[in-house]
Amino acid sequence: MAGKINKILVANRGVPAVRIMQTCRDLKIPTVAVYSTPDRLSLHVFMADEAVHIGEGPPLKSYLNMDRIIEAALATGADAVHPGWGFLAENAEFARKVIDAGLTWIGPNPEIIALMGDKKAAKEIAKRANVPTIPGIEDPQSPEEVLEWMRREKVDFPIMLKAALGGGGKGMTKVENEDELASKFAQAQSEAYKAFGDSSLIAEQYIERGRHVEVQIVGDKHGHVVHLFERECTIQRRNQKIIEETPAPSLDEDLRQEICFTAIRLMREIGYDSAGTVEFLLDASTRKFYFLEVNTRLQVEHGVTELATGLDIVDLMIQIAEERPLPLKQHEIRSNRWAIECRLTAEDPRTFAPSFGTITRLQIPDGPNIRISSGVYEGAEIPPYYDSMFMLIMSAGADRDQAIRVMDRALSRGLRVEGVKTIAPLLISIIRHPQFRAGEFSTRFIEEHMEELISAFKETDPDEEVLKIARYVAEISALGPQKWM
């Protein structure tokens, strides 16, 4: 029986580590940070009550080094581990090692992580729970086998090839016609093997105007499962989400109820016991939705759900890990605001080439209805070894228009980052685009509108402010002393 948690080691860095530590501060639970050599001056290291160096820059030598992380927990007297997102968050072996070391794992049962990490098994369970799945073939051995399935099931090109053990958009490739099937099949197998050590694939029908809708679920260890409504994560680049919002503009009330309760049905079937997300692909033309995958961890975009419902999902995860029953029933959970999140990454907004270095100036947006989840400070380094996302900017409003207006203020007036390039100009272009504002977009929005989005970038000159001040000083000098001086 897990009792009260007294100290938490956060097995992560940057934004997720800081986010978890903020809730721990609210709960008066001391935290332990782990850090690599280039991260020794990172924000999460300063925020924690204790910090342990676990290795060099490359993740395999630090944030993916399971034994070093568990040693750090035991050496500092931590009695629980929260993995955040990314790195080891969905690694069943790590979860088992944490539990075997006598520590509390703040996440779902390792068996569930392993089961949902296998896309083939997850799809089978979804079918068993009567959850619609995209027509597809599992583990085809050759391009010929894919063609045979397409003829048998009357499926047309394009199709999607993806890694059977995939996640995070890796090992996914779209095949437009029969001519490119052989080369794309080999490419997907190679990517799958590099990313997951297993080359098996799934081939699926490609949903042309797909929209990505996911449902936030929380389940405890006593069989209670509730949903915290849905999020729309359709604005993506190379299968990586950039903007997320709740409620989903693509759903009406009937479809919302159906998709949320379908997610609950699936998670009950699994016996899910933490915070997690069920991802669906919505075909905008037919209004049908299909199961994609289950994310067995805290999602990057959980903050918009927290803004809309007023709940703290990290706090709920800790309560569940302590084997306490969920403090809420479904009818008590309300979503009463519109919330939007933009992921700020250190990348060139035109080419998405990573931008590393020191943040020489940082102005963080503030004011009404803005929430910031940051992993950096002015003067901090963005090292080349890790994910380039360093800040989540969230806005809320009584309706979607208001939430977009607040986001516009945050990005265009409130945010200033110098020293590294960021995708802020692209984010501003997207939220100002008439189709985004009308809620009419698919997962291909960015690739379809990229040139148009870039053409809307406003070029800012770092000397602009200096010139303004110089002009003002010159005017004052020319006018001579004034009454107000």
UniProtKB/TrEMBL annotation:
Residues 4-451 form the Biotin carboxylation domain. InterPro entries: ATP-grasp, BC-like_N, Biotin_carboxylase_complex, Biotin_carboxylation_dom, Biotin_COase_C, CPAse_ATP-bd, PreATP-grasp_dom_sf, Rudment_hybrid_motif. SMART domains: Biotin_carb_C (SM00878). Its EC number is 6.3.4.14. PANTHER family: CARBOXYLASE:PYRUVATE/ACETYL-COA/PROPIONYL-COA CARBOXYLASE, METHYLCROTONOYL-COA CARBOXYLASE SUBUNIT ALPHA, MITOCHONDRIAL-RELATED. It comes from Thermosulfurimonas dismutans. Gene3D superfamilies: ATP-grasp fold, B domain. One of its GO terms (molecular function) is metal ion binding. This is Biotin carboxylase of acetyl-CoA carboxylase. Residues 123-322 form the ATP-grasp domain. Keywords: ATP-binding, Biotin, Ligase, Nucleotide-binding.
